[in-house]
Amino acid sequence: MKTIQLPSVTFKVIGPDHPITASVGEDALLPCHLSPSMSAQEMEVRWFRSKFSEPVHLYQNGKDQADQQIPDYQGRTELLKEGIVNGSVVLRIRNISPSDYGQFNCFFRSRNFYEDAVLELKVAEVKVTLDPETAHPRLKLSDDKTTVTWESKHQALPDNPERFDQVFCVLGSEGFSSGRIYWEVEGMGRIWAIGVARESVRRKGPISFTPEEGIWGIEQSRNCYSLLTTPECPLPMSESPVKVRIYVHYEKEEVAFFNPDNADRIATLTASFRGEKIFPFFWVCGSVGGRGGDNP
């Protein structure tokens, strides 16, 4: 009896040669295709991030396997199959959030061969500039108003109503009252607090960094991290992040903090914006003790 061995069909998976960029709240389209062109209808098509066993989307046995998806992507993905007979598919990810930033693997498997490609998704952020009219006199802003530094001496600045006069705080120049927005903060030093504040936050005298004052954020002091809640809630952090990504969903009144280097969620706070404008909030201190404010 003669055994007939079918030839193994090999292929490459081709993705875009540039990162794909999407804004928070929008949809992202991640395309990839087989080379040479061939049908992928009977193949497995798996999208995953860091772990193969945790699919973002899985097409197998001729249909989508929604029950196999990891929770973060359930109900958010769709595999567009118009070109699947030619080996071309597109993954649609709905309602992009900052945690979607990073790499996605597009994996094809036939009966006797498999291959994948890596795609990079970038989530567009807003550029935050600092409002010099709100900055405490010991805070020095860079010329482009994107960096703030604590100084030991007061600057001669007018005591306008918008300016913090006791706590070493500054707000972002642009406020917002709808939609989804995020920005990143880096180079924060040893003692800081970051988050958002309502427009009505008190500027004069000592204030508490709490939701009752209209502030939602996280802080670091002595390498210890805490949520700015009442009472403060310690945050378990294995290492100090180089950057922190702050994501706000105004309609949901939600403020979330991420480590953009590994997409880990640091914390999420439920806020009460009361229909007010929300501004990026920063507290910078050059010494340990109290809230880093001046005496009355």
UniProtKB/TrEMBL annotation:
GO biological process terms on file: regulation of cytokine production; T cell receptor signaling pathway
Domain B30.2/SPRY positions: 108-296
One Pfam family per UniProt: PRY
Keyword Cytoplasm listed: no
UniProt keyword list: Disulfide bond, Immunoglobulin domain, Membrane, Transmembrane, Transmembrane helix
UniProt xrefs under InterPro entries: B30.2/SPRY (IPR001870), B30.2/SPRY_sf (IPR043136), Butyrophylin_SPRY (IPR003879), ConA-like_dom_sf (IPR013320), Ig-like_dom (IPR007110), Ig-like_dom_sf (IPR036179), Ig-like_fold (IPR013783), Ig_sub (IPR003599)
Keyword Metal-binding: no
Superkingdom of origin: Eukaryota
Ranges where the Ig-like domain occurs: 7-106
Any GO MF annotation of the entry: signaling receptor binding
GO cellular component terms, semicolon-separated: external side of plasma membrane
Localization annotation: Membrane
Entry similarity comment: Belongs to the immunoglobulin superfamily. BTN/MOG family.
Name this protein carries in UniProt: Butyrophilin subfamily 1 member A1-like
